[in-house]
Amino acid sequence: SRSLTVLGLETSCDETAAAVVRLDPDGRAEVLSSIVASQHEAHRPFGGVVPEIAARSHVERIDAIAARALTEAGVGPEALDGVAATAGPGLIGGVMVGLSFAKAFALARGLPLVAVNHLEGHAVSARLTAPAPYPFLLLLVSGGHCQLLSVEGVGLCKRLGSTLDDAAGEAFDKIAKTLGLPYPGGPELERLARGGDAARFTLPRMLAGHKGCDFSFSGLKTAAARLAETCETDQDRADLAAAVQAAIAAQLAERTSVAMRSFAQAHEARLFVVAGGVAANALVRERLKATADQHGFTFLAPPLAYCTDNAAMIALAGAERLALGMTSGLDAAARPRWPL
Ligand code: KG4
Ligand code: ZN
């Protein structure tokens, strides 16, 4: 066995991303380049991602972004061992752009193609910069996803629970919008919450005491929207933001605690990884770290750049599959929905 160098492409939401990652035979990864071109500015006037604008933007930018990833990595196409692209789940127009680009690239260069599940990308993101041996418990918290997974090997994820309604990031974004904050609201809400007193408002504790690992944020969203209408001063809004952030962090920690108990019954390993954009939130991290400490789990969170959507995680997931001969045909489907 030898090391594998893979070009990865990510276009499932509003980031056009390309990266080159090298995977050594011992399982260690090295990110040779990772380019992320965000479209936030294009979507901000609409208060959320507009799928058609996203797809058009991907089609205009993907060639240049991929070329830049290769240039920055100092790797010519002839040095690549494969090309990996997100094939879902996500906004289908965007997924089709990245996957079709990857197919054309693979065909032109005679390279194997790996169609990657975006969630599997998030699942391996911690392995980009630190040893994270399988199996581990994963909390994936992003704008589109909120799930607890037992990650047991390449392509082997078991879902322990997921959200019954909104994803945690979606809840952050929607509540931020009712507080008058611009899109994407998660980081804005965190900033506003800094000067707030979380104890000022009582919010519903969704699924509190629930025995499973599922999440629900819709009740919180409704309650917060009602309270937002009563806010008059900046202090009121900061207090509400702090209360919302505390409620979301508490639910994530509580469900993770349940998942740790069941993971510990099935495995010797005690590694907990949090990934996805919401892992950028300091209070969320703090609460999850405390939960991990409580249960004797090692806490691992990828660097921020690999928490939010990026192509390095897709390249790595592709490389791990490629190493096992798990490649895809040029007829690989683009899937708007693709549960792990
Ligand atoms: O992983 P990601 O970049 O994209 C998806 O796959 O969804 O996650 C983006 C989500 C958005 O909902 C954003 O508001 C949220 O992560 N987010 C945050 C913070 N930074 C990003 N939420 C709360 N606090 C933050 N600091
Ligand atoms: Zn994502």
From TrEMBL:
<feature type="binding site">
    <location>
        <position position="173"/>
    </location>
    <ligand>
        <name>substrate</name>
    </ligand>
</feature>
<keyword id="KW-0808">Transferase</keyword>
<feature type="binding site">
    <location>
        <position position="118"/>
    </location>
    <ligand>
        <name>Fe cation</name>
    </ligand>
</feature>
<feature type="binding site">
    <location>
        <begin position="140"/>
        <end position="144"/>
    </location>
    <ligand>
        <name>substrate</name>
    </ligand>
</feature>
<feature type="binding site">
    <location>
        <position position="309"/>
    </location>
    <ligand>
        <name>Fe cation</name>
    </ligand>
</feature>
<feature type="domain" description="Gcp-like">
    <location>
        <begin position="30"/>
        <end position="315"/>
    </location>
</feature>
<feature type="binding site">
    <location>
        <position position="186"/>
    </location>
    <ligand>
        <name>substrate</name>
    </ligand>
</feature>
<keyword id="KW-0819">tRNA processing</keyword>
<keyword id="KW-0012">Acyltransferase</keyword>
<keyword id="KW-0479">Metal-binding</keyword>
<dbReference type="InterPro" id="IPR022450">
    <property type="entry name" value="TsaD"/>
</dbReference>
<dbReference type="GO" id="GO:0061711">
    <property type="term" value="F:tRNA N(6)-L-threonylcarbamoyladenine synthase activity"/>
</dbReference>
<comment type="similarity">
    <text>Belongs to the KAE1 / TsaD family.</text>
</comment>
<keyword id="KW-0408">Iron</keyword>
<comment type="function">
    <text>Required for the formation of a threonylcarbamoyl group on adenosine at position 37 (t(6)A37) in tRNAs that read codons beginning with adenine. Is involved in the transfer of the threonylcarbamoyl moiety of threonylcarbamoyl-AMP (TC-AMP) to the N6 group of A37, together with TsaE and TsaB. TsaD likely plays a direct catalytic role in this reaction.</text>
</comment>
<dbReference type="InterPro" id="IPR000905">
    <property type="entry name" value="Gcp-like_dom"/>
</dbReference>
<feature type="binding site">
    <location>
        <position position="281"/>
    </location>
    <ligand>
        <name>substrate</name>
    </ligand>
</feature>
<feature type="binding site">
    <location>
        <position position="190"/>
    </location>
    <ligand>
        <name>substrate</name>
    </ligand>
</feature>
<protein>
    <recommendedName>
        <fullName>tRNA N6-adenosine threonylcarbamoyltransferase</fullName>
        <ecNumber>2.3.1.234</ecNumber>
    </recommendedName>
</protein>
<feature type="binding site">
    <location>
        <position position="122"/>
    </location>
    <ligand>
        <name>Fe cation</name>
    </ligand>
</feature>
<keyword id="KW-0963">Cytoplasm</keyword>
<dbReference type="InterPro" id="IPR017861">
    <property type="entry name" value="KAE1/TsaD"/>
</dbReference>
<dbReference type="Pfam" id="PF00814">
    <property type="entry name" value="TsaD"/>
</dbReference>
<dbReference type="InterPro" id="IPR043129">
    <property type="entry name" value="ATPase_NBD"/>
</dbReference>
